[in-house]
Amino acid sequence: MTNLALAVNSITYFNGVMHFNLADGANDLTNLLDTSYILTIIVAFLADTYLGRFKAVLVSTFLEFLGLALLAVQAHYSKLRPPTCDIFDQTANCEQVDGANKAYLFFSLYLLAIGTAGIKAALPSHGADQFDEKDPKEARQMSSYYFNWLLLAVSIGGAISFTLIVWIQDNKGWDWGFGISTVAMFLGMVVFFAGLPRYRLHVNHGTKAITEIIQVYVASILNRKLHLPENADDLYEIDRDKEAAVEAEFLPHSNILRFLDKAAVDTTPHENPNPWKLCRVTKVENAKIILGMIPIFLCTIIMTLCLAQLQTFSIQQGLTMDLKITSSLNMPPASLPIIPISFLIILIPIYDRIVVPLIAKFTGHITGVTHLQRIGVGLILSSISMATAALMEVKRKRVARDNNMLDAIPGLQPLPISVFWLSFQYFIFGIADMFTYDGLLEFFHSQAPRALKSLSTCFLWSSMALGYFLSTIMVKIVNAATKGMTKSRGWLGGNNINRNHLNLFYLLPSLLSLVSFSYYHFFARRYKYRPQST
After folding, report:
1. Is the pTM of this model over 0.70?
2. Residue 195: which residues within 8 A CB-CB, separation 6 or more?
């Protein structure tokens, strides 16, 4: 609730209040989101190894609270921001934020990014820790319900953010918007801490789990000249009976990524083998699972690249359009994501309670379809959503051209076309979001070793980080490559979106999504799911 409004509306804040130009504002936003997702890796590592997931969430909520509070202060005091100026007035010479005020702005934003990163990294796994995976009933509840209802909770928070918070930012002032978000974050922190007596807390194992994965890769390289035994039972594994008193995990051998099996080739019996030269089969299987997830992770990056475009340029499209809902009520462009969010709030309970049990009767799978099938559907829909966005942009520009409004001032001279035309692209991508991101989160969490649950979910956040990073690069490359082809000095050059070529730009991520899906389909068909450990 507290940061989604900023994710969709900050381009307006950067452009209209801090006076960055459109392309720089879009890149600043994607860089901020990119950093937030990259930082999840660091926080997840600390959560799994030293801090614990509860402490990681608590510290992160405080940092996000502090970042929001600082932004509220800057938005309130005029000395901390540039003089008011109409960025869309071509005769105006608007002063861009700089110096100490610019440093203050980005310090606050990146403090907020660190807090957001920590919550994303540790909160889903902390919630999953409340289910006992050894209890069949609780394990089934986590697989069937938990991640769907986590997405529902995020969607409800998003609905409040995209409506109430965005409306306050646009109509009452950014200081009020940031201030209310600060209060909400503080209340969330108090409520989360109040649940401490009832939580099941994750037990830290230091860096042991990560070290064991690295040991397998090192041992397989050191033993690369050894021959694999014909019988997999001859590979090294600890004695299950001797280790009965120890809570050790056991996984059966699989016939994939066989080169890693060389880490378990035992040439001479040892009482205490060197773990950098000899690893037991279960460690090797965990290393195989981690390595096998990497192609899936890489194939989902392009979807975030698509999301980045909808979070930035679609908002600027909306600013030029008719925002009327009724004769007396207008929709802020940044509230456009409420359309897919509303559908998600309706569809998630239906999908979870009706569709999944119905499909499960035919497939025999507890979640109806497999995680990878769910992800694949979302990837196809993301490509369709960007193609739809390109068609909607063609229609919007045609209206501007036909009405001689190519130089109309956004917000003051709206085009005679309803902003709800953009709902088509948002709706399709919203459904893609439900399938892909929820599926990815559950997939990575279910496949990871027990001690690396937080770090495993960072595959999702890292995928999103790389998507935002590539989005920034793609915008710069496209602008540079098309600089001499258009009067606006690039498909996305300048601040006048009516004279840009956003429709052509949207087709690029659509095509990239199709290519990405073809690679995903290749690897997904060959992926072997993690067996039930004993």
Report:
1. yes
2. none
